[in-house]
Each structure stands twice: as structure tokens, then as C-alpha cells.
Request: fold
Amino acid sequence: MTLVSGENDPTWDAGIYQLSSLGDRVWEDVNLNGTQDGGEPGVAGVGVTLYLNGVAISSTTTDASGFYGFFNLTPTVPYTLAFALPAGYTGFTKVDVGSEGTDSDADPITGVTGPVTLLPGENNPNVDAGVVKPAGLGDFVWVDVNRDGKQDASESGVPGVVVTLYASGQPIGTATTNASGYYSFTGLAPGVAYSLSFGLPGGFAWTQPTVGITTTDSNADSNGNTGPVTLVSGEYNPTIDAGVISMLRMSKKGVGSGINGAIGKDKLITYTLLITNTGAGAISNVVVDDPLPVGLIYADKSTPSPASTNPLKWNLGTLNVGETKTIVFVVTAIVNTGTLTNTAYVNGPLGNRQILMAQDDAMTPFAPDAVALMRFEAKREKSGVRVIWQTSQEVNTFGFALYRSANGNRSDAVLATAELIPAQGRTGGSYAWLDVNVKANARYTYWLIEAETTGAMNENGPVQTDGGTNGTDVAVALQPSAVAVAGGVPVAGLPAAVAVPVKELGQRVLIETQPQTVNAVVAQQAAAQQSSTSASTSSASTST
Reply:
């Protein structure tokens, strides 16, 4: 520029502008909604590259909180950003969801933003990128031995089950349960509706679904399929389980050798097991185990014979469709207190795994000082109801009483025997009592009360008559005895409060000619019992 003398040139100007900046944050979109929510963490160490007209001009990395920034940028030119997918993440979240300040601007596939043009002096803190971690699911296929729809600690997994994974209704992969029954799918994209289909092992059906809590229930329906499962970023869902139940059915019943199935120390219990194939095909390698509880020992009686006795085991082989096999075996009770519950299990066809169980009703042995009752029944006769009972031992037993109810309720029962019927001694005996205070065509229920010398009372029964009319009287054979027995012999013309003592002489019954009151007879009996060291008495009624 050359100026002449006296010239003023006011055209030489200089324009300046403010530089611009942009940035902001890379975060984990945990719930996959495309929006930064409170509590969602920033991702540190993510590489971010700045491009101008397609040429990389700068790069940076996110800080510990996921923030980044580019400064001193020329305004009015189109910049773009490229975010590198960090290790351990599977992709970018949805783009342009919600407001500019909280959305993600990175393409879900490439991680590149659209063009960003800045005004002079502008800072744009809204260029963000949401990333997501891979997800997974699994977990367990098991045999629901007790058929309750819930996983129990003692129930085993099923190996070799093929599990198919579906995404939006299309199969995308398979897995097979391991030796313990576990499976898993990993590296899954979150936010997708997955479902599973389980292959059913032969001889099984699916247990009832969604019983109890999600960590121990079964998710497979009657066809082995689950409902949709949608995972969030980084989630592993270990609760997609499937329980199977055997198509075998087993019932178990134990009967004690005492009256009404009662048991006691050194008494026998007979168990009957019925195993039935209810499935559509034959089931092979069926094995039944019965690990007897403490208090029971095998009595060396079984049909069929067991393959082993400790524990008891029977190899039943193959059960065809609809076939039932029966096992009957005998054990001995060796305790007299507590509760005995015996459980049998079926193993196979999955190897040494329990697939089915059956329990008998819990049994409580009677104490050794209780009467060993072998028989207790009530029979109608022409004159009334004859109540009969028989004992095999009477330890500390002073005598017996009977209670009667016309409606079957124990609370409504009344004392049927006016006085105590004396016991017959440690070795037991046979008893009969004729109850004449009954109506025809009515059903009566009786309870037998044992009175001990200690003052304790033990109840047995109930037993019940039918509702028919009294029939013909029957004679009762008595054991030899010379001790009078209160009651039991109704004599025409005598009031109900008077009893006739009876004695047995050989095969004949002698009715004494002098009636006595019930109280007097019982007093005689008590005195005779207390003075005898080996009492052997009998109580009976006779035909009229």
C-alpha cells in the first residue's frame, strides 16, 4: 500500500471472531431408553475424534465421569464426532430420544454424529453418546421330585436338555444343560424380547409354573416355552428355570401290627409301594430306594426281594405304559417315642438322580408303659352292643373304662362303664363289655381309657358300630379266672346299678347267685389285684 502526500485511506480494516467449543458426555444407558437418567454412570476412557470436512483434526478421551470437550474451534464450519465403542460394551443406544441435553447423538451402529455447526463464541454441551453392555440369561433345569413347582436343595439338575433361544420369535441359538442341569446365553443385546424353549426328557412332563419366588420357580409352560424376557444393559438374568416331573406315580402306605395300625417298640410295620407308569412310553432303569429313618430297621421280609438292604433298593427294570409294580416289605420299630416318617424315592432313567418320592403318614410309637392293644371293636347283639378288646401286655395298667358317643364326637362322649374294669396283668388278656344302654338302629362310637397305677390316663380308639338292629347274642370264651368282674351280665329283674359277678370253670360260665353292687365288686377286684403278684384276670359278658 502506497500513500501520496496528504492522502488518508480509511479502508484498511480487520475483522475478529470468538472461537467456539463443544462436548459433553458418554454414559451407560442402563435401561435402554435413549435418555440420560439420574444414576446412570458415565464411562471413562472413551476415545472421541473430531472431524472437519471428513478429516480428523483432533481427538480426546472421556474423564473419570465420562465427560470430554473440544475447544478453540472455528465457528460456522460443520464438525462431526466419532465415538469409539469402549471395551466390554456391545453397542450404542437409541439416537435423538427426548431433549438435546439428555439424548444420545451417536449413530447406534457407527457411533458417528451428524454435522455440528457452531456460532462464534458458542459452547455446545449437548453432543453425547449412550453405550450399552451385553446381557445374558440362564439358568437351571431340575427334577421336581415332590411336585411342588419349587426348587428344593435336595432336588437334582437334569443334564443334556437342549434349550433354544428366540429373539422376537425367531430362533437365534441353542445351549445344552451341563452335568448339573445349568445352561446360559451371554453376549446378548439388551432391549430385545427374548424367549426360550426347553426340550422335554423322555418319561417326564413339565411341573406347574411360577410357584413361589422367581429364583426358585419354573418358567416353562406345559409345552416347555417361556414368556418374553427383556434384558437391560449389563444384566444377567439367572432365573429362567424349568422343572420336570416324572410320569411315574408312586403311593406308599404303612400299617402297624397293633390295633388300628398302631405301632410300638419291637412291633412290625408293613409298607406297600405302588409304582405306575402314567406316561405315553415305556420307562426303563426304574430303581426304588427307601433309606429307612432312624427308628426303623428292615425285618428281612420283602416282595420282591431287594437288591440291597442298606439302604433298601429294588431294581424294577422297565415299566410299560399303564403298568404298575408292587413292593411290599416289613420293618421293625426300635423306638417308642418321637415321630417316624418313611420316604421312598424312585431313581432313573436319569441315572443316580431322585425323580419321584412318596411318604407314608407320620407314625408315633406308643410309650412302653402304655397298654399294647391288639384288638378293639364294637359289635351289635340282641341285648345291646358288645365292646371287645384284647391286650398283649399291660405295664402299670390298673384298669379300663369305656366312653360312648351317639354322634361320633369325643367331646359328647359319656362314661359307659360305671366302675373301672380291672386289668389282667403284665401279659395282657381278653375283655368284653355288654352295653345295654343303647338304642336300636343307632350308630355308637366307643373310646377305651387305660388307667395306670401312676394315675395317668391313656386313650385308645375310637371304634364304631354299624347302625343296624341288635342281632343274636354271642357267647364269649373266657380265659380261666376266679375273679369277679363288674357288669357285663344283664339279669332280668335287677336294676342297672347291680352287677352279677361271673367265674369261668373250664368251658362253663358260672353266674354267682348273690348279686352285688358294682362298687362292691370293684372293691373286691382292686383288693385281689393288689394282693397278687401275678394277676391273671378276665372280664366278660355271657349269653342270656
Observations:
- Residues 471-544 have pLDDT under 50 and may be disordered.
- The domain at 18-133 is CATH 2.60.40.10 (Immunoglobulin-like).
